[in-house]
Amino acid sequence: RSGLLIPLFSAPSTASWGIGDIGDIATLARWLSAAGQRVLQLLPLNEMAAGTQSPYSAMSAMAIDPIYIRVPEVEDFAALGPAALTEQDLAALDAARSAHRVEYARIRPVKARALRAAFDRFVEHEWNRGTARAAALRDYIAGEAWWLHDYALFRAVHDREQGVCWTEWPEAIRRRDAGALEAA
């Protein structure tokens, strides 16, 4: 067998936002298959800490980095339409797409804002109304609770602590003192 071992960012399509994303994998796999290749192995896609670019600097063994999500295919983002992105966001995406390197500092905040807008729409139109999509998310959360609850807590505290390493958090929070976590 032969094929490629690559980081996803090295194979961006014209549909991606300046970095290869999950949606690019099918196109890449078809291209490899047409060339007689049978293996595609990607470097880790786990969430990287802010300011890092190494796929080996993951904050989780389970969570995908949101930077690799194909945002236009997120149903709630698509439902928001063109108003979901500001002129500054569109300019940042154009600059990132035409850059010779991956522009993490441009892409990450644009995708974060887009995904936040999509999530807010999901909460309003799906979660709060108890739709089938909301039930599917509840089922996913329940099925993945073995890692998802701890990771969600970690990310919430990590964001509250402005991204500093967990070893620098207040001691009571590092120890997961219930009172400290509730106060946070």
Describe this structure in words.
There is one protein chain. With 184 residues, the chain is mostly helical. The chain has 8 helices and 2 strands. The chain has helices at 24-34, 75-80, 87-98, 104-127, 132-143, 145-160, 171-174, 178-183; strands spanning 3-6, 39-42. It has a two-stranded parallel sheet with strand order 1-2. Helix 1 (24-34) links the parallel strand 1 (3-6) and strand 2 (39-42). It is globular, with a radius of gyration of 19 Å. It starts with a strand and ends with a helix.
What is the CA-CA span between the terminal residues? 52 Å
What class do helices, strands and sheet pairing give? mainly alpha
Determine the strand fraction and express it as a percent band: under 5%
Largest sheet: 2 strands, parallel
**Beta-strand segment tally:** 2
The secondary-structure element order is: EHEHHHHHHH
Mean pLDDT: 93
Secondary structure tally, helices: 8
What order do the strands of the largest sheet run in, or round the barrel if closed?
1-2
Give the CA-based shape.
Answer: globular
What integer value in Å does the Rg equal? 19 Å
Share of helical residues: 40-55%
Low-confidence segments, ≥5 residues, pLDDT <50?
none
